[in-house]
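FAQ: What does the model actually see?

It sees only this:
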Amino acid sequence: SGGETSLAEHVSLFTIQTNFVFGLTLVLSAFVRRASLPRWWDHLRGALTFYLVMAGIVYALLVAPPGEFWSWNIDWPNLAMHRVAPLFAVADWLLVTMRTRAGWLRPLAWMIYPAAFLVYSWVRGAIVGWYPYDFLNPTLPGGWAAVLPMTGIVLVAFLTISVIVHLLGNVRARLTARSESREDGTA
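And it is asked to produce this:
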């Protein structure tokens, strides 16, 4: 992929989609009292944390130019979306009061969007001849024989990170419950 990106291509990037929704949730969170937010809000925050962390990891390992892995001296959009936003999302996930613990279906449910994104990318790419990331592009040398194993590795990484974010969320919710029970004098 090189050259100018059309608006349709730009909004077809996982990073753009997840950063946009994360920004919307932050704005909404700023204007709505925490207690007024629905219970599923924590699940949305967790999903966005997971997606942003993966956007940062995938960018660093598979998309960024060679030598940029640890660098913070990159153009500001990449810095904001691939470094700052993932760190901010993790801080939000770990520090903001959370009441909702969840079972093991949550990390699997979070995988629906990345799986749908993958299918969308391949179908759209086959139609328009543009793939959002080279590692998903079967028209490059190696074809599907190169794309499918890499996709499998990336999906395993996604599942692993989703489980880690899920577990950290449950720990945070447990700490919130303990803190609230101490404040209520029920501990």
